[in-house]
Amino acid sequence: MLPLSEIASKIERSGLNVRDLKVLPLRHAETLKAWRERFMANREKAIEIYNECFCRICEFYLAAREAGFRYSGFVVFQIQLAKKVETVLVTRNYIANDENRLVTYFSDIADKTKHRDR
Q: Rounded to an integer, what distance in angstroms lies between the CA atom of residue 39 and that of residue 89?
């Protein structure tokens, strides 16, 4: 992972403008935890598709990355860049709106899949 100072210097040279910067330290830890829990719930299926060694590597990777984000200061930077300042909205409301739209879309797909598989 690059430090923010190195990322910023590369952005400056690119001619892009930073319009928004969000630091997400624990969000990714929680994401990795959820992925690990889902993986463990489906571990037997994964062994059938891949093998035991692959599953152990996945378990280790997900647990180690989660610990890194939770206890070792790893962070994810979400940086919004734009060539023109006026092209980016002032608030982040559109992100939540798009997220809600996608959640609904994928929930509908999951429901259709459940009904089809019955």
A: 37
Q: Per the structure block, which two tokens stand in for 7? A: 């990322």
Choose between 22 and 52: higher pLDDT.
52
Residues 100 and 55 in one domain: no
Number of domains, the chain: 2
Task: Identify whether residues 82 and 94 lie together within a single domain.
Answer: no
Q: Domain range spanning residue 107? A: 89-118
> What's the DSSP call for residue 15?
T
What confidence tens digit (pLDDT) does each residue in 80-108 have?
A: 999 988 887 777 787 788 888 888 888 88
CA distance 2 to 76: 10
Residue 11: its pLDDT value, please?
94
Q: What six digits make up the tokens of 1?
A: 């992972």
Q: What is the CA radius of gyration of the chain?
A: 19
